[in-house]
């Protein structure tokens, strides 16, 4: 766990110190096994299981990435891993058409691959003493 505070210096001098914060850093995110993609009409549903190791702090976000035609994984705007519904339901849905556009470059018939990482950290702020 790290505790920190900061202050800035500009043409007017030093500012006040920020509130003391602490952050629990949890190594790298867990890449979850069992990520599935399912076609549902004109959409693709990406779903996953609960992380097996939460490092004693709750998962507050998922990083959901879909593979583009060039093999690089990027996040899709429809799969905002901070969304409370996505966090609680462990799934998100994207349109197939959005995967066929220039951002992803997939073509009809391509397989859709996704990865999901569980992010867990705590960031609390406290007033300065």
Defining traits:
129 residues, mainly beta, Immunoglobulin-like, three-stranded antiparallel sheet, 2 helices, 9% helix, elongated, disordered C terminus
SSE layout and pairings?
Blueprint: E1 2-4, E2 9-10, E3 13-14, E4 20-24, E5 30-31, E6 36-40, E7 43-47, E8 61-67, E9 73-75, H1 84-89, E10 91-95, H2 96-100, E11 114-119, E12 122-126
Antiparallel strand pairs: 1-4, 2-3, 4-12, 5-11, 6-7, 7-10, 8-9, 8-11
Care to describe what's here?
- The chain is mainly beta.
- The protein has a single domain, classed as Immunoglobulin-like (Sandwich), CATH 2.60.40.
- It is built from two helices and twelve strands.
- It has helices spanning 84-89, 96-100; strands spanning 2-4, 9-10, 13-14, 20-24, 30-31, 36-40, 43-47, 61-67, 73-75, 91-95, 114-119, 122-126.
- The strands form four sheets. The protein has a four-stranded antiparallel β-sheet with strand order 5-11-8-9, with no helix packed on it. Strands 1-4-12 form a three-stranded antiparallel β-sheet, with no helix packed on it.
- β8 (61-67) and β9 (73-75) form a beta hairpin.
- It is elongated.
- The protein starts with a strand and ends with a strand.
């Amino acid at each position: 766990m790290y505790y920190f505070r900061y202050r800035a210096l500009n043409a007017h001098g030093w500012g006040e110190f920020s509130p003391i914060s602490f952050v629990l850093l949890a190594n790298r995110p867990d890449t979850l096994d069992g990520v599935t993609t399912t076609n549902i009409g004109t959409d693709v549903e990406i779903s996953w299981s609960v992380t097996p190791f939460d490092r004693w702090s709750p998962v507050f976000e998922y990083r959901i990435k879909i593979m583009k035609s060039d093999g690089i994984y990027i996040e899709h705007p429809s799969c905002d891993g901070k969304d409370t519904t996505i966090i609680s339901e462990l799934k998100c849905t994207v349109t197939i058409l959005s995967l066929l556009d220039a951002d992803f470059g997939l073509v009809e018939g391509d397989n859709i691959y996704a990865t999901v990482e569980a992010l867990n950290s705590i960031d609390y702020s406290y007033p300065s003493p």
